[in-house]
Design a protein that fits this description.
Elements lengths: L1 H15 L3 H10 L13 H8 L1 H19 L12 H19 L12 H11 L1 H18 L2 H19 L5 H17 L1 H9 L16
Helix pairs in contact: 1-4, 1-5, 2-4, 3-4, 4-5, 4-6, 5-6, 5-9, 6-7, 7-8, 8-9
């Protein structure tokens, strides 16, 4: 049993460690996205640096990483039920997010884990994922700041968990609170730019800084 758990946890980390943005940039554009734009190996920097097709591809794959890692619960014994399943989903999902932030396949220099986190939430609860996505879209639409949308959705996620589960899943509530703090921490550079007024605003009409 313990060996199975270790294998699944390692598998979740390796899934999260797939450096999608780095590989897409190097294979199709001959560049390392971490050396351009914000220096972040994620979908947003890929979108701004390499264009919409590359950015959307990275977004989709990074979401899939989180979804696949969280779904590893299907390999657990049938004796694992109820809240235990939810807890293992949290464990596998956050392990994938950590893998994305510190990927073994990219010298432990990855992204901020937002897309992988979205995939994780999608696998755990569709209503929670929808609530966070709507929050994200509304904030980005109103402000044009992707970073602010990401942080707002993450910080409000504990409230959504409480409402969806009628405050009956305290572990999940605490977990989302911790995730919200982690997202704020990984966006500390963005916070400084927001305060100074130097944060980049999102626009689909902007041309990529690097063209194929």
């Amino acid at each position: 049993m313990e060996q199975l758990h270790i294998v699944l946890i390692v598998g979740a980390y390796l899934l999260g460690s797939i450096p999608t943005a780095v590989w897409v940039g190097k294979v199709f554009f001959g560049v390392d996205v971490r050396e351009h734009g914000s220096g972040n190996a994620g979908a947003t920097n890929t979108l701004r640096t390499l264009g919409k097709p590359a950015g959307l591809a990275v977004l989709a794959i990074d979401c899939l990483k989180g979804f696949a890692a969280t779904s590893l619960v299907v390999f657990l014994p049938e004796s694992v039920t109820g809240s235990a399943v939810l807890q293992w989903q949290m464990g596998f999902g956050i392990t994938a997010v950590i893998g994305h932030i510190f990927p073994i396949f990219a010298r432990f220099k990855g992204g901020k884990g937002i897309a992988t986190l979205i995939g994780m939430v999608m696998a755990m609860n569709g209503w929670l994922a929808l609530s966070c996505m709507v929050t994200f879209v509304l904030v980005v639409w109103a402000t044009r700041y992707i970073s602010l949308g990401s942080m707002t959705a993450a910080v409000l996620s504990p409230l959504y968990v409480g409402l969806i589960y009628n405050w009956q899943e305290p572990v999940f509530l605490y977990f989302c609170t911790a995730i919200g703090l982690l997202v704020v921490y990984t966006h500390r550079a963005n916070i400084n730019r927001l305060i100074s007024g130097n944060e980049n605003k999102f626009s689909f009409n902007k041309k990529p800084t690097i063209e194929k």
